[in-house]
């Protein structure tokens, strides 16, 4: 990108903002949910974020201004998380927003599915700058196996693998997340597969692996949007099963947090 292109601060499509969120990175955070997602996860609880042009158009400057209002609450560990939808669907806007947040002295995190594709214009060329200005990447791997990944998302897994490779090369601070669905990936062998998937990149700067429980909160939203919910009838995950699988993951997956 040229210098003039990098000085630009475009506007982007925003679904919503969550103030003082405590689940999307360290500390208290302002969470910016961007509009647009290439995946069609069967358990998605925000299908209204799928359309690329939905939501409201907001400038980088306005979002930085709003974020700075919450700076006193962030303390030493909090900051701003870009989530979605999928922030990588708006790569130029995401890069500009992360850059300006960092310039303003705010900690940044990117919450992403990591799905890269040439279908998204400019995505490969903007990815280095996105990662440069993200203090932390929170990556939902969806599934470690190509077959399960396609069943769940409707897409191939190669885009995810390309993103993980980029994080490994850059020694990006990384949290891994995966949703555990009853009857689908809730067995010990599924955690073994996740561990094997991550072992492909021994240089990952991996700080945390977090298994998330499947819940049914998105089912009503699918119905309100006139869509049949693909996992209708699947119950929420038993907390005891989740705890056992998390213990297994903690024992199998080697963390590599790197330097402070």
SSE order and pairing:
Layout: H1 3-7, E1 11-21, E2 29-34, E3 56-59, H2 60-69, H3 71-74, E4 79-84, H4 91-103, E5 108-112, H5 123-132, E6 136-140, H6 146-153, H7 158-169, E7 173-180, H8 188-198, E8 205-213, H9 219-224, H10 239-252
Parallel strand pairs: 2-4, 4-5, 5-6, 6-7, 7-8
Antiparallel strand pairs: 1-2, 1-3
Explain the overall architecture.
With 260 residues, the protein is an alpha/beta fold. Helices cover 36% and strands 21% of the residues. It has helices spanning 3-7, 60-69, 71-74, 91-103, 123-132, 146-153, 158-169, 188-198, 219-224, 239-252; strands at 11-21, 29-34, 56-59, 79-84, 108-112, 136-140, 173-180, 205-213. An eight-stranded mixed sheet has the order 3-1-2-4-5-6-7-8. Strand 7, helix 8 and strand 8 form a beta-alpha-beta unit. The two termini are 30 Å apart.
Could you write a compact summary of the structure shown?
The chain has 260 residues and is an alpha/beta fold. The chain contains 10 helices and 8 strands. An 8-stranded mixed β-sheet has the order 3-1-2-4-5-6-7-8.
Summarize this structure as a short list of keywords or feature phrases.
globular; 8 strands; TIM Barrel; 260 residues; alpha/beta; eight-stranded mixed beta sheet; 10 helices
State the name of the first-level CATH class: Alpha Beta
Largest sheet: 8 strands, mixed
Q: Total helix count?
A: 10
> Could you give the order of the helices and strands?
HEEEHHEHEHEHHEHEHH
Rounded to the nearest angstrom, the distance between the terminal CA atoms is 30 Å
Indicate how many domains the architecture comprises: 1
Low-confidence stretches: 1-7
- In CATH terms, what is the architecture? Alpha-Beta Barrel
